Structure formats: structure tokens, C-alpha cells
Amino acid sequence: MVENFDWSNLPFGYQKTDYNVRCYFRDGKWGEIEVSTSETVEMHIAATALHYGQEIFEGLKAFRGKDGKIRVFRLEDNARRIRQSAEGIKMEPVPYELFKKMVLEVVKLNERFVPPYGSGASLYIRPLEIGMTARVGVKPADEFLFLILVSPVGPYFKGGFKNTDICIMREYDRVAPRGTGRWKVGGNYAASMAAGERAHELGYSAVLYLDPREKKYLDECGPANFFAVKNGVYITPASDSILPSVTNDSLQQLARDMGMTVEQRHITIDELEQCQEAAACGTAAVASPIGNIDDLDTGKRYVISKDGKPGPVVTALYNKLRAIQYGEEEDTHNWCTIVE
Length: 340
Ligand SMILES: *Cc1c(COP(=O)(O)O)cnc(C)c1O
Known about the structure:
Blueprint: E1 20-26, E2 29-30, E3 34-36, H1 48-52, E4 55-57, E5 60-64, E6 70-73, H2 75-88, H3 96-109, E7 122-131, E8 144-153, E9 164-168, H4 186-190, H5 193-201, E10 206-207, E11 225-230, E12 233-237, H6 246-257, E13 261-265, E14 277-282, E15 286-295, E16 301-303, H7 312-325, E17 336-339
Parallel strand pairs: 9-10, 9-15, 12-13
Antiparallel strand pairs: 1-2, 1-3, 1-8, 4-7, 5-6, 5-7, 6-17, 7-8, 11-12, 11-14, 14-15, 15-16
Helix pairs in contact: 2-3, 6-7
Pyridoxal-5'-phosphate (PLP) binds next to helix 6.
């Protein structure tokens, strides 16, 4: 392991590691996997990724477990999702076997950057695919680069697991009703930056977006899905403008395992009044509990957490998922791939 690394205080940010892995799609086929020590990409100044946003990505993590083994969480699901994203914006889908091989290889190559068990840190794995063909007219590329970089990241909750406030803002949508929200496209993030910065300036951790068609239902929390607990039921939005979060799917399964009912359906803004708990969920945080939700346009505050502390269901789900990721509890759903 790398010496002199303050694993517990690492930010969620980029840290240089030893290697990244790359594979090019050219002449109608994927080439050999290349191992690189370079932190840059050579590309044509007219590449479609640069001009027309042909860029998709993924985010998953590897954890050093209690038994010393390294586990990658739900890599098949991320592999499937990046293929769906590719099809969504006319890029070449990366075959599952290639995705898996490259993920395992990049983790092994950077093994010394996988944080020690007990630090609360993990190795973030960031696959991305970009369109490389030079075009000036709008047309999909026919050459692509699929690359995976990794970066050790610290525990998301440095000062302990605690609530943050979020806000509802109608001035901006991040995606369109039949647009790219269901795919992990870089452009969705570009579209969310103005609202996100505004929310941060006002002291909120995220924007809770409404459905872009009617602005009646809850969609998701910027780069994370949203779920709430209403009278013991796990509720989460059904929408074709949100990204199907692997974390949300996992938490739903764990909620069912705990005997809870799970409902994936439209959730109106008013329904927040009847929720006892809520959280934003995604790979970075697992679940980030929500204290208050302020509707900036109506001035109404939805007080989710009455005592200011994370609720019992969100806390239990968070702990359970982390325990599976760190090999402390049995992986009954076969979510982890052990890096041999
Ligand atoms: C990546 C992402 C999420 C979280 O997905 P996970 O698979 O749980 O990490 C949620 N919403 C958006 C918009 C995302 O891009």
C-alpha cells in the first residue's frame, strides 16, 4: 500500500495513480487493451466528444474488505448501463467481457491505491467512453476510446453520517422528458451546473429536480437518486428522465430483505409532508440523509427529520450496504466481484 497517505481524509477527488487502461474501437472492432501511465489523451481537435458531447461514463468502487480481499461492487450492472448509455447517444457499446477485464485489470495494476480496511475510504473506478472521429457536421463518431481511470477517495461522511438540506428550484431542468436523463451522459452534468452552483451558494447540498414535463413529481437529486420512507414504505420516483441508480436498486433490495414494501412510482411534492425520512443515493455516498427540503419558489419548507438526525431506516440501509461492500456481511445477492 502507498505509504504516507492520509486515507481517512482523502477528498472525493482526483488523485494520480500508477496506471489507467484504454481500448480503441477502430475499423469496426475493439483493439487490444493498453496499459498507460499517461494522464492525458491525444485526440483530434474536431473529435465528436469535444464538439457534440459524445461522452458517457460510469462510477463504481472497489473496497478492501475485512478479510483483506478486494471487492468490486456490482460491476455487471455498471457494464450494462454504459452499454445502454452508448446506444442512447449512438456510440459503440463496450462488450461486457471487455468491460469486466479492464475493470479488474486497472484495480489490480493500482492495488497499492486500494485503501486499507477500516479507513472508510475506497478506490473509485471511473470508466468513460468518448467519440474520437473528426467531424464538423453533426454525425456520430465511428471511432471511440474507452478508458478507465481510478482514484482513491476518502469516506463521504468525514464528520460522521449526518443530514444535509436540499432545495427544489424550477428555474432549471437538467434533462428533458424524453431526453438523455436515463443515460449517464456528461452533458446532463453540464446542464446541471448552474442550478447546482446556485444551490451550493445558498447552503444546500443538492437540487431536487422535478419531472421536466409537468413539474409535479419528484425526479432526482442532481447526481444521485432520491428515496423517502413514508409510514414504513420505501418510496422512490418512477420516471423516464432519471438515471437508474445501482445504489438505489441495491437499497430497494435490502429494504425488501428487511421486510419493507418498496414502491417505485410518481411522488408528488406534497407527499413530502408525509415522509419521515429521505435520502439522496449513489455510489459516492451510498445514502446521504436529508434534513429539510426547501421549495425556493413557494417558500415552503418540508421538515423531513424532526430531530435533526438521520432516521432509523436510512441508517440501517446505509450500514447494511457498507457491511456487504467491506465483506463484513454475507453477500447474499452476489453483488461483489473479488479481485483475485
Ligand atoms: C451516477 C448517477 C446516479 C447514481 O447512480 P449509482 O449507480 O447509484 O452510482 C444517480 N443519478 C445520476 C444522474 C447519475 O449520473
